[in-house]
Amino acid sequence: MKNDQLLHSDVEQEHRWAPGVRAERIGASVAGGVAELDGHVGSYFEKWAAERASRSAPGAATVHDRLRIVEADGVGGRRRGRYL
Known about the structure:
Blueprint: H1 4-17, E1 26-31, E2 34-41, H2 44-55, E3 62-72, E4 79-83
Parallel strand pairs: 2-3
Antiparallel strand pairs: 1-2, 3-4
C-alpha cells in the first residue's frame, strides 16, 4: 500500500491534469488509502471528473466524494449550493 502522503500528492496531481476540473477549488485528504474530496465545483461534470481523476491515482483504494455543486441562481449573481 502506498504511503498516505504520496497518495495525497498523486490525487492532487490527477486533479491538476484532469480536463474540466478546477483543482484549486477541490481539497483532498487521505487516510489509510481512502481519499476524501471536499470543496466546491461548478457542475455535475466537474464533480464526476474530479472523482474519476481521484480513482485513477495509483493506490487509491476508495474515494469519498463530499464535493458541493455551486451554481449561479440568476438573481444578482448569488450562488447556491447543494451536496449531491
